[in-house]
Amino acid sequence: MNQDLQALIVEDDPQVSSFIADVLRTDGWNVREVNSAEQAFGTLSKGRWKIVFCDVVLGGEDGYAVLRHFTENLPEARFVLMTGHESAAGALDATATGAYDYLIKPLTIEDISSVAGSVREQNRLRLQNQKSKTVEASSGYLSDIPLIGRSPKFVECLKMVGRVAPTNLPVLITGESGTGKELVAQAVHQRSQRAGGSFVAVNCGAIPVELIESELFGHAKGSFTGADRERVGLWEEADGGTILLDEITETSPMFQVKLLRALQQSEIRRVGSNRTLKVDVRVIAATNRDIEEEMRQGRFRQDLMYRLNAVTIHIPPLRERTEDIPLLAEYFARRVRPLPAPPVTFSAAALSMLQKYNWSGNIRELENAVLHAASMSDNVIYPEHLPARVSNFNETSPASVEILPAAQRGAEWLPLADVEKSYVAQVLAHTGGNKQAAARLLRIDRKTLTRILKPNDS
What we know:
- The protein is α/β, with parallel strands linked by helices.
- It has four domains: 6-129, Response regulator (Rossmann fold, 3-Layer(aba) Sandwich), CATH 3.40.50; 167-314, Rossmann fold; 318-391, Helicase, Ruva Protein, domain 3 (Orthogonal Bundle), CATH 1.10.8; 402-453, Homeodomain-like (Arc Repressor Mutant, subunit A, Orthogonal Bundle), CATH 1.10.10.60.
- The protein contains 19 helices and 16 strands.
- It has helices at residues 14-26, 37-42, 63-73, 89-96, 109-129, 152-164, 181-190, 212-217, 234-237, 253-265, 291-296, 302-308, 325-336, 348-356, 362-376, 388-391, 416-430, 435-442, 446-453; strands at residues 6-10, 30-34, 51-55, 57-58, 61-62, 78-83, 101-104, 171-174, 199-203, 242-246, 267-269, 276-278, 282-287, 311-314, 345-346, 380-381.
- The strands form five sheets. A five-stranded parallel beta sheet has the order 2-1-3-6-7, with helices on both faces.
- α4 runs parallel beside α6 (152-164), α10 crosses α12 and α13 crosses α15.
- It starts with 5 loop residues before the first strand and ends in a 5-residue tail after the last helix.
């Protein structure tokens, strides 16, 4: 048997096991199939497995128990967990516990060949370089964080979270407003070796420019008017833990210089003090802007960006993971009427409308809509219970939206500036007054949007 291409399948469904085995054998792997955790444990001394495909649900034992056993006794094996029952949050548990990958059934030939091909290439490079690496990872579940979904993009996002969490690397989280960047940051922290320390979230955009240094780094007594006592900053509060710098692109270039020094030296200096303090903090930054564009415009320092984004995790917008909307909607509906009250359910028409809507406000907007609908309904949510912006949503493109009322078309033609302003106002109404979301839909920056809406000087 080729020692470099040994694969083990741990699956109690013979059809699934046979399917995976056929794909692997076609790709040149030597395959053994077992149907229980006990049989899997018995194979440890009978083969040098390079890849293990294991189902999460295996009768009395589960795939996580098999994973832990193999991680301890055969760390060089790449372990792939498979499930047909869990959501994407399982990807975080799997990868943080040491799994190489996490696949949601039904599997495709491409799923199997892709992950097996990746392991095969890694083995080739490892042999070529004559060195190996083992990955230490934490374990546990995150039942208190609603990282809900099954869509491929969201699964990949959570795989990244699971892999980076056990490291001490700084992380940059990108994604539109309302996608759950702080929840993902919390997941990174809770999966890290710093989970016993503090998690401190700072909204940089909500702190005045002149106060942000004092808020983060603290200040000495008498350092400025009103500083009647020494103050410990949020950076020190996070010592031994994690700090989230949300809306990092809202900070000024002057403060970015000081932040860069804190990251490089792992030390800070309180405002008005000459003494430096060593602080052990893992930094996670987040932004809903295009950070590359911010650098091109000179609003964000390139050296700071490279210091912050050792790993970048992008959270997809809700419109790119529509298959997750029913799961999220049901989760929010259950929060309205917790057990033992009967759950609120959705009619097929209502779910269809939720999936067709564009959700410029993402999960935050979906939660708001579901809470509204649940409060309007008895036990079943119908289309008429949804907010008007959702139930009346037209899937046609913005260009097909009627800009002028019928009474004005063909009568007196309005100046272009007035038409432009009317159209922008309609888009702004659609986003519920969210200028950033409106600017994104119109593909203009926020300053241009503000200029268009500004009253005429005349």
